[in-house]
Amino acid sequence: MITREEIEEVVSKYDKSRITISTICSHSALQIFHGARELAFKTLGITTPDRKFVYEAFPLAKPDLFIEVRKFKDVLTREVQEKLIEENCVIIPHGSFVEYVGAVDIVNKLYVPMFGNRMVLLWESDRSKQREWFREAGLKTPREFKNPSEADCKVFVKYPGAKGGAGYFTADSIEELEEKIRSAIRRGLIKSLEEVSIQEFIPGVRYYFHFFYSLMLNGGFRVGEGGRLELLSMDKRIEPIDEAYRGLPNVPTEFFDYTVTGNQPLILRESLLKDCLDMGARVVLASQRLFPPGIIGPFCLETIYHPSRGFTVFEVSARIVAGTNLYPQSSPYTPYIFNEPMSTGKRIALELKKAMESGRLEEVLY
Amino acid sequence: MITREEIEEVVSKYDKSRITISTICSHSALQIFHGARELAFKTLGITTPDRKFVYEAFPLAKPDLFIEVRKFKDVLTREVQEKLIEENCVIIPHGSFVEYVGAVDIVNKLYVPMFGNRMVLLWESDRSKQREWFREAGLKTPREFKNPSEADCKVFVKYPGAKGGAGYFTADSIEELEEKIRSAIRRGLIKSLEEVSIQEFIPGVRYYFHFFYSLMLNGGFRVGEGGRLELLSMDKRIEPIDEAYRGLPNVPTEFFDYTVTGNQPLILRESLLKDCLDMGARVVLASQRLFPPGIIGPFCLETIYHPSRGFTVFEVSARIVAGTNLYPQSSPYTPYIFNEPMSTGKRIALELKKAMESGRLEEVLY
Amino acid sequence: MITREEIEEVVSKYDKSRITISTICSHSALQIFHGARELAFKTLGITTPDRKFVYEAFPLAKPDLFIEVRKFKDVLTREVQEKLIEENCVIIPHGSFVEYVGAVDIVNKLYVPMFGNRMVLLWESDRSKQREWFREAGLKTPREFKNPSEADCKVFVKYPGAKGGAGYFTADSIEELEEKIRSAIRRGLIKSLEEVSIQEFIPGVRYYFHFFYSLMLNGGFRVGEGGRLELLSMDKRIEPIDEAYRGLPNVPTEFFDYTVTGNQPLILRESLLKDCLDMGARVVLASQRLFPPGIIGPFCLETIYHPSRGFTVFEVSARIVAGTNLYPQSSPYTPYIFNEPMSTGKRIALELKKAMESGRLEEVLY
Questions:
Q1: Surface of C (256-295) touching B: CB under 8 A
Q2: Which domains occur in chain A, in start order?
Q3: What are the contacts of A9-18 at 24+ separation with CB within 8 A?
Q4: Quick check: A262 and C269 CB within 8 A?
Q5: Contacts of A280 in chain B (CB under 8 A)
Q6: How far is residue C87 CA from its own chain's centroid?
Q7: Which residues of A touch B51 (CB under 8 A)?
Q8: Which residues, including other chains, have CB under 8 Å from residue B182's CB and lie 6 or more apart?
């Protein structure tokens, strides 16, 4: 495991006046580059050849430099890492970055400084660690069933890793559940029963809350060790199941697909912001106890709300989520916090800038 | 009933150069405080202790002063009222304000000046008065059935007061309707059959239109006595039923819940704006005939549109609605009316400012 | 057919310093007028008497001049055309313009210069030409069935022309399909079987992509002959079927209605932008081969995305679409392209302004 000291060593050799914000060209990279440019950071995009034109198609979100790789995992090669370090790069991890490079390899093999605390990726990507985190935070989560035969209610079944929801399914009975698991094994989606996560199906409305835990800005909602918690925005994900009603009365089975294809904006009833902020604070505090200094920067709580149950949290994303792409300038909440246009991408750049200005850059990198 | 003259008497003693905009901390208070601050008004939030941190978490929407109360109804106590009057407060009523304090008590016991015409709250909160208002306006509303046995179609059943949709239900037959009403009585949701409102179920798309009737600005769509009608924005409410398709084919009964949990943005087909504005104008004109000077400031028409039926109006909210929280800076319609960022909260502050500048403050308060 | 030379002759007599942007008052006219005003163009609205007040209700989107007509088709009368030419008008075609005036009559009888290449309207309004265009572009489209008896899957049935989806339906079997076609003929929706378009029902998520093909701006995504392709925004249409789940379990048949009533904002998963931009580029390139100089200005690809099928394109709108009305100032994509607020309406005005400044106005008119 690469230590914080090793990363600090790398940072110590950086030209602090020429920090470059970098990530791989996918997920929320347009927003990240755009936000960095707004605050006059240099930007560098790691891209595969077939995607480069996308980032050229949006001139104000186009990185200043490109590194072309055959596959994203090549970011771990010595050649690419040296180039990134040479350019004083700080990597902003996002969902595709973690998916393609892998949390374990990031922690063990990536010597380039990253924004935030990379330890969080280990806690996010391992379902049992994530459950421990939620338990420590005292959050309500769906009941989990180890064995299909224990499933005494409608269930929702997921697979490990961030495959974006592909192959997830519901089952209304133990028989249906067992048959669908056998089918998933036959189709090679999973290797064995042990890999599936069988959860109680929670009825209600999905809210994905986009938080930012800041060490650099004062005022606002103080949480934990010297930081403040901001609620920047929220979204709802769009999956094929979300158009299932269009196939009524005989809904084609292809609609029962939970792959995330995009996002829609929404707001939460104001009286529920209390619970929302409280959940965010609990997650931060638990992270500070479980893996100090805990989570830093953007994270997302993925919840289902029902009036009779309150919020059930089913996942945490411990980095910028794609739903923030809805708000490249402002969300229904950012005008209440910032006097200027603010996206999560720009918020990251702002945190870096404030850290640099106060000589505290090392605090927000690892 | 507190008379307009009594309120004018209170206002006459106000320091007009130091008007404070005030409301209780819920519903749309962030937007109201933010809008007031944008126009340099002082702000005061009446809050319960557990909610205060929410308003501190959004520094640019945080009121300058807080009054902490044990429960919101305490706004009626002599102590709180005196403090509000001492601070030259104008109260902005919103949904939670009306729900917690009560329309009748507002009219009879609240001596603090309110923005708009408080008479409107009596017409809004009483279903039979609301129906009279719609009839006077010539609007199409759902058919209502006094007795379950008369229900000759799919019906939608609501309860009195603004409980945000909790416990509402549909029924496809008289038997189902009667059984569900008995169940609601058993569960204590209502005391007797007399309390339910049984309406024809209207298929179609929900549109909630956010209007503002202004006495202070010129130009635009002139309606009634010296005012203009603005369409500021629109929304769709999000209720658990809105995710029911995710439970297909065996939808859990908990999805059949109509409690409002949040809001989504949308726009209306431009050719239908004619009908939308026409409905808004009819509601204003009818209000001027029924309770002069009629409605002033923000109001919302809650409609269902179907191509074969046109618009059916099922409710009016005669004050700012929470759906406007989607648009703290601009909506898809405000850029066509204002050269600056404009929310409904800021619009209220602008109306007050214009009224003060022209010495007509009394016209927009009661 | 009115030739390009004839239109150039009209333009040659225009006072280039006083170009007026004009369209009929419907569809996206508020946005078009507002965008034109932002760039200091004069504006002229062709309206029926009953709609005029709508455009007066939005002062910053109100045209400088109105021409009142009894019906929109009267734009073809000599009197109206002469007035439009006298005012140096450039017409911006939109969906209602094409629907009311008719593509064939526009091409044969309208001597007023239009923004873009009017030939495109012939390719858009004729289903067989549109299929040829998609084939030339190499896009995936739904399978079509000439005869109901060939329908071997769930199907979606549409009618010719832009009636906004009225009367469209799905069928799960050949028997249901045949019965519903007979019913449509009985109800006068169509005259014969030949008029219906029977398509494979495609499950997935609808995305309507708003493109702009520019001849005047440099940089960005270069496509074809001297132009660049911009992705300005996207939307999802709202039809009664979109609330069908609210009628569960016994969904009233009125919900099975596909008339467009409005639009909702959304964004696409960033990794899919590659496919989205690629489809847009293919449509532009095919148009340049099929009807040079091809498409110019705004157009929309109407797609359904499913993870297992990718994008299926079911329609192209070769002019501004109403979904762009969601974004009168900026979309989740425009900040990545423009340093100022930008709508599709303003984008059209910007293209005209740039063309005027560089003496290339004729290139973007026909």
A1: 257, 259-265
A2: 4-116 (3.40.50.20), 125-139+204-342 (3.30.470.20), 144-200 (3.30.1490.20)
A3: A10/A85, A10/A111, A10/A112, A10/A113, A11/A113, A11/A361, A11/A362, A11/A365, A14/A88, A14/A113, A15/A88, A16/A88, A16/A356, A16/A361, A18/A42, A18/A88
A4: yes
A5: none
A6: 25
A7: 271, 274
A8: none
HSE-CB for A357 with a 13 A CA cutoff: 9
CA torsion, ordered C53, C57, C60, C64, to nearest 10 deg: 20
Q: Which of B210, B242, B243, B320 to probe the A interface (max A CBs under 10 A)?
A: B243
Nearest to C220 among A56, A246, A329 (CB): A56
Q: Which residue of B has its CA nearest to A203?
A: B255
Each residue's pLDDT tens digit, B67-84: 999 999 999 999 999 999
What residues 314-343 of chain C have any CB closer than 8 A to a CB of chain B? 322, 325-329, 341
Q: Is B30 on the interface with A (CB under 8 A)?
A: yes
Q: Provide DSSP, C53-113.
A: HHHHSSGGG--SEEEE-SSGGGGGSHHHHHHHHHTTEEE--BHHHHHHH-HHHHHHH--S-
How far does the CA of residue B265 sit from the closest CA of chain A (Å)?
Answer: 7
pTM for the whole structure: 0.97
Which two structure tokens, joined as six digits, stand for C118? 């009017």
Q: Which helix (H) or strand (E) holds B5?
A: helix B4-12
Residue B250 contacts A where some CB pair is shorter than 8 Å: yes
Length of chain B: 366
Residue from the list B205, B220, B308 with its beta carbon closest to the beta carbon of C56: B220
Q: Tell whether ipTM is more than 0.85.
A: yes
Pairing mode, strands B20-24 and B89-91: parallel
Which of A207, A273, A337 comes nearest B59 by C-beta? A337
Q: Give buried/exposed letters for C119-156 (b at 16+ CB in 10 A, else e).
A: bbbbbbbbeeebeebbeebebebbeebeebeebeebbb
Model confidence over A214-263: pLDDT tens digits?
A: 999 999 999 998 899 999 999 999 999 999 999 999 999 999 999 999 99
